[in-house]
Specification:
Layout (H helix, E strand, L loop, with lengths): L7 E8 L6 E6 L5 E2 L2 E3 L6 H13 L2 E13 L4 E12 L8 E7 L1 H7 L2 H9 L6 E5 L4 E2 L3
Parallel strand pairs: 1-6, 5-8
Antiparallel strand pairs: 1-4, 2-3, 2-7, 5-6, 8-9
Helix pairs in contact: 2-3
Length: 143
């Protein structure tokens, strides 16, 4: 009997300021612009994981507002739950995981991020949660 494939579960926070700008990080490990996030720990809720990841990567505390999308990296078996958040405390700053932090407009996000990650930010401005699949860079069509 073949081993059952395993998935990894990650969470990310789309932190939106009152002026509509979104907090993004330039990851230290790969140099890509993305929303702050990472692997969900076994003993934490989705929302607690989002708060922890945003704080670890940016130094900013947030309130998690709502689920905005579920995304699957078909190449690596990573399922990401993405939540819209509001900043509450702290000043964002570079960390060991994020070499640079910026507040970007939607247009800047589209120019700086791979399509599979930019769509997560844009979906946070939609009224209902989205469900999408990608190959790590681009969205892939659903069968």
């Amino acid at each position: 009997m073949a081993a059952t494939p395993k998935h990894s579960v990650s969470v990310a926070g789309i932190v939106v300021r009152d002026d509509g700008r979104v907090l993004v990080i330039k990851r230290d490990d790969n140099g890509h612009w993305e929303a702050p996030g990472g692997v969900l720990e076994l003993d934490e809720s989705f929302e607690a994981g989002v708060r922890r990841e945003v704080l670890e990567e940016t130094g900013l505390e947030v309130v998690v507002e709502r689920l905005t999308g579920v995304y699957k990296n078909m190449t690596h078996g990573i399922v990401a739950l993405v939540y819209r958040c509001s900043p509450t405390e702290g000043a964002p700053h570079a960390t060991d995981e994020a070499r640079e932090i910026r507040w970007m407009t939607a247009e800047e996000v589209q120019a700086a991020m791979a399509p599979a990650f930019a769509v997560r930010v844009l979906d946070a401005f939609e009224g209902t949660p989205q469900s999408r699949a990608h190959d790590g860079v681009n969205l892939v069509s659903r069968p």
